[in-house]
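Notebook, p. 212. Picked up where the previous page left off. The plan for this session was modest: take the two constructs that came back from the sequencing core last week, fold each one, and keep the raw output in the notebook itself so nobody has to go hunting through shared drives later. Recording the first one now, exactly as returned: residue sequence, then the structure token string.
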Amino acid sequence: MTENRGPDTLLLAARELDQSFGGRKILDRVSIEVHAGEIVTVVGPNGAGKTTLLKILLGIRSCRASQVWRKPGIRMGYVPQNIPIDPVMPMTVGRFLNLGMERKTESSIREALELTGVAHLYPSPVHGLSGGEFKRMVLARAMLGRPDVLVLDEPVQGVDYAGELELYRLIGTLRDQFSCGVLLVSHDLHIVMRATDRVVCLNHHVCCTGQPEQVSNHPEFKELFGAQVVESLALYYHHHHRCKDH
């Protein structure tokens, strides 16, 4: 869907973004944009500044006003990497979706859960959920406000491989259904290559950006992730595209 990118579809952008903590440069002149109807995935090693970038774009962390642009009136849904919940506090899925938000009706909560395939969990205790069910519940909460942009930090962490595939498929379905932009951080390079429109490789600065196959062939990407990973991605592309052709 990247062919539809243009000034009218731009939802969120950073320009030459710099950020330092304790005298250490975390982000160095990072530029990124997210358009309606596209999935943008940020990849990079641990400590590369990926989560910091997401939090600045969301407005959770401050920066110079001139460095971040958000479409006026934009609605954003956020799925953080970790959501600590006190195990001694009884909480149902329905109650969790109402936490910290303008109170929602039961029907709107059930509708959001239906979108992510877990409407039946409405009365269930949160602590009884599997990893995949928990991620779908959190994604449903992010969808409650019908966001223009979904921002997802490691959305499949703690989920088995089959569950990862299903969750990425679901994210693509939500993008298609609502024409929202999706910005996500992921370490699942092989899945990312099939589940995203554009990849941004980040290691404090933007090493390279473009369509997945372009990025996987970039020298800085190869240096960051190693020849073995790059070779396996090349094999993936070879087999994946042969299957699509036939």
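Okay, moving on. Second construct, recorded in the same format:
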Amino acid sequence: MRHRVGGKKLGRTASHKLAMLRTMATDLLDHGSLKTTLPKAKVLRPFAEKLISLGKHESLHARRQALAVVRRKEVVQKLFSDIGARFSSRPGGYTRIIKLGQRLSDGTEMALIEMLGSELKPKETHKKKKEKK
């Protein structure tokens, strides 16, 4: 029985899972969105939202806690200057998961996890103007 056993294993050891979540959270904070499998996105969401909550507190202790997880200093700087300020009045729910359908190669359910406010911008279509002379 799995009573009170928290979290998904994702077919990895604990150290590999932590390393994967650190990398994915760093990329999410850096780029604003990330395309991954649905189970990974569901595990990443609370992990990343805790980091964004840390970014809302402008203290040395919070910055050191974020640096223990995110190893790139420029991403931590962005977290505390830009992302923390953007979500300062929001009590939670900083990310959204959008299902993208199945991957062609193996049928795995894919998803897009993104921070709110960094929605995909539609591509501008270039209309060719025909000039007649």
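Notes on construct two before I forget. Residues 14-115 form a domain with the 50s Ribosomal Protein L17; Chain: A, fold (CATH 3.90.1030.10).
Flagging for discussion at group meeting.
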